[in-house]
Amino acid sequence: MSTLTATYPTLLDFKARLDPNDKVASVIELLAQQNESIQDIPWKEGNQLTGEVTTVRTGLPAPTWRKLYGGVQPGKSTTAKVTESCGMLEQYAVVDKALADLNNNSAAWRMSEEVAFIEAMNQEFTKNLFYGNEATDAERFTGFAPRFNLTTAANGQNILTSASPPDSTDNASIWLVVWGPYVHGIYPKGSKAGISIEDKGQITHQNIDGSGGMAEVYMTHYRWDVGLAVRDWRYVVRINYDLENIVKSGATGPVLADLMGKALRRVPSLNNGRPVFYANRDTLDALDLQTNNMPLLAFRTTADAQGSLVTTFRGVPIRRVDQLLSTEAGVS
Question: How many domains does the chain have?
Fold first, then answer.
């Protein structure tokens, strides 16, 4: 696959540029461990304090077949301005000072306790990456699902379903995203990518027990200003299918390998970025059920450079994302 996405660094790339003693480095590693999609997303600084204003091409000029002494009408492409917003995801971690000091290494102990806060932010970000909708929740950024939810829309050709359209009960989606210059994460102008961590140190908590009682605590403030830019919808494909229609033989209902093959052909060029499939555990179970029954050379499991096992379909990695639902509404 292309290395074009080197244009925009991932969080792991940012981590490599940090000072060895910077606590943010360990947080970035934790995010990557807890959420496989983090390692894929390239990040770009927005051109606005609240996100990114980008230009999207909406139409091509019409060429003319000219005959001798015939004229050619001038033409031009059409474009549209699109504003992509960032959301502010924040959280405070509070640890009782007396408890932390008992361990004789309060900084390390606090970090071990605050892993849960990092995981919570990670899960919330990932859920929003796919389902966030600023039309209904203005404080969020808009994820993939609200952008790809109508087959009759302009991007409807990149929404695939099986012969029997999904109903309204137990549907799931497989997403093909080609990360790169056309689809990438954004952070506000003048800020930095990833989670910002501010150690507030020791403070007096004014209402720690909910009844006005005070106590000395250590406090950490986590903040993540983040958004998603989809400059060209052709580089995202959604496969929406009904889980209850999955049949091991594939004789009826959706055949997931066929739909994934179609998804790859919907993208103009897989070399224009880093293509990745995303699916939840129920979908991966369904894939195993069908491919174990009908072995396909298209699926392979190999070890990457870090020694982690990665399953691919026609060379494209398949990542597990637990925040993807198995209770989606069927795409209409």
Answer: 1
DSSP code of residue 61: P
pLDDT along the chain (332 residues), means of 10: 49 53 52 69 88 78 82 79 88 84 73 78 92 92 94 91 72 96 92 83 82 85 92 94 85 88 96 95 92 76 74 92 91 78
In a domain, 326, yes or no: no
Identify whether 142 is part of a domain. yes
* Interatomic CA distance for residues 235 and 43, integer angstroms: 16
Helices 281-293 and 256-266 pack at an angle, to 10 degrees, of: 110
Say how far apart CA 201 and CA 26 lie, in whole Å.
19
Model pTM score: 0.82
The contacts of residue 83 (CB under 8 Å, 6+ apart) are 48, 51, 52, 53
Give, as one character, the DSSP assignment of residue 24. Answer: H
Distance CA 114, CA 329 (A): 35
Name the one residue in this structure whose structure tokens are 């209904």. Answer: 136
Residue 63 counted as domain residue:
no
